Amino acid sequence: MRVSPAQTTPELKPCPNCGKQAGELKKSELGSRFPYYVKCNACGWATDMVRLAGIAVKLWNEAKVPKAAKAKR
After folding, report:
1. 72 domain-assigned
2. Using CA atoms, how far apart are residues 23 and 32, in angstroms rounded to an integer?
3. CB-side exposure of 17: number of CA atoms within 13 Å?
4. How open is the CA angle 51-52-58, to the nearest 5 degrees?
5. How far is CA 8 from CA 14, 49, 54, in A?
6. Is a pLDDT exceeding 70 seen at residue 72?
7. Residue 71 lies inside a defined structural domain of this protein
8. Average pLDDT of 37-49?
């Protein structure tokens, strides 16, 4: 499920893993206490699931992927 653009006030930076502008804020439809996350549609890298959409965006924008993880691509 996509979150409406009105809820995505902060802009997503490029993917911390692959560098492409393919991040998308998503909301789980499972009724979880932690429904929000951001996932890269290019490489599949995603943030942890959190309670608030703004926190998911912040985790994405501030993520630092270790160089060892990038080398495994």
Report:
1. no
2. 21
3. 16
4. 120
5. 15, 16, 8
6. no
7. no
8. 97
pLDDT band at 59 (very low <50, low <70, confident <90, very high): very high
Q: Are 62 and 15 in contact (CB under 8 A)?
A: no
Read off the amino acid at residue 33: R
Residue 26 is encoded by which pair of tokens? 């998503």
Between 66 and 38, name the one with better pLDDT. Answer: 38
Q: Give residue 30's identity as a one-letter amino acid code.
A: L
How many Cβ atoms are within 10 Å of 35's Cβ, its own excluded?
A: 19
Residues of 7-16 as b/e, b for ≥16 C-beta within 10 angstroms? ebeeebeebb
Total domains in the fold of the chain: 1
Cα(34)–Cα(51) distance, integer angstroms: 4
pLDDT at 5 over 60: no
Domain interval for residue 25: 5-66
Between CA 69 and CA 18 the distance in angstroms is 11
